Amino acid sequence: MARRSTARSGGAPEAADAADDVRGGAGRLRRPRAGSGGRWWVWVGRAVLWAFIIVVLFNGVWHPLREGIATPSSEDAEPQPEEPEYPEAAAAAFAARFAEHYLNAADDGGETARAEAIAEFVPEGDADSFNVPAGSLSGSEIQVVTVTPEDDANAVVTLSARVNGAPMSLDVPVYAEDPSSLVVSGPPALLAAPDKAELPEASGSESDPRAEEELQPVLTSFFEAYAETPEHLSRYLEDGASVAQLPQGSLEFGQLEDVAVPVRSEVGEDDVRQATATVEWRIPGAGDESASLTQSYRITVVRSDGEWYVRDIQGAPQSFGR
């Protein structure tokens, strides 16, 4: 019995030591460390996700707030003035027809006929205030100059006319309920005609004598074809250019009085100039060789491959005082 007990008591420490040796060796069992097995990637992913959520929430709140601060509200914005929607064309025609009666007090019609005509344009009961003695007022060459709206319903129509033989202006106030309902809203006013302007000296651009000499025969033939032989007109036109000839028999070419060509300023493959040509036309059927007409044209010409061609023709803006 004693030996068995001793053997048991003595063997236990040896077994325990052996077990400890096994745990301490290569095959020793250890508790897994925190973060092993890829779990730290999970925490990194969560951190990135939360950061993304915070950024989205911040922008969602801050962006509208910032726009509200930076952009003034519609109430604070200064309202833009609206252009009056006045029926200018209808008022102009209405005022011109009124002026035909207002500026003419013929002897044969009498005051009654004139008042009846004016009554169609003025408020009820006001026609008598426009009466003048018969034969005291005459108007001709009545033309609309401008329409100046005051608002959507009121405007002043300015007319030009010869009144009793002198050039004058007539301002007619016109009220418009709509384009089909108009009325003269007050007495018109006769004013002086615009003064004749003093034409300033033309800007002295440097001319090109060589180009002028080369263009003389070209433009002479062009204007002759332009008025009399349209079948030859395309010979003098740039490729792709379109110039409508004058009505057949309306004018006959007399001579090319003058050609002015500025020096070349632009740089390009073709030489493009805007020349001024003064032409003398003869009027057919006048029966007198002295019946002529002098006119000035702005001709856009192009020099390509050593030849001049016409690209466009129109009236010259200022040819006096060149």
Structure report:
With about 325 residues, the chain is of the alpha+beta class. About 30% of the residues lie in helices and about 25% in strands. The protein contains five helices and nine strands, in the order H-H-H-H-E-E-E-E-E-H-E-E-E-E. It has helices at about 1-25, 40-70, 90-100, 110-120, 210-225, and strands at about 140-150, 155-165, 165-180, 180-185, 190, 250-260, 270-280, 290-305, 305-315. The strands form two sheets. Strands 1, 2, 3, 4 and 5 form a five-stranded antiparallel β-sheet that branches. It has a four-stranded antiparallel β-sheet with strand order 6-7-8-9, with helices on one face. Strand 2 (about 155-165) and strand 3 (about 165-180) form a beta hairpin. The longest helix has about 30 residues, at about 40-70. The N and C termini lie far apart (about 150 Å). Residues about 1-30 have low confidence and may be disordered.
What would CATH call the class of the domain at 209-315? Answer: Alpha Beta
- Please tell me the CATH architecture of the domain at 209-315 by its name: Roll
β-strand amount: 25-35%
**Helicity level:** 25-40%
Low-confidence stretches: 1-29
Helix count?
5
How far apart the termini lie comes to 150 Å
CATH topology title of the domain at 209-315 = Nuclear Transport Factor 2, Chain: A
Give a summary of the structure in a few sentences.
With 322 residues, the protein is an alpha+beta fold. Helices cover 30% and strands 26% of the residues.
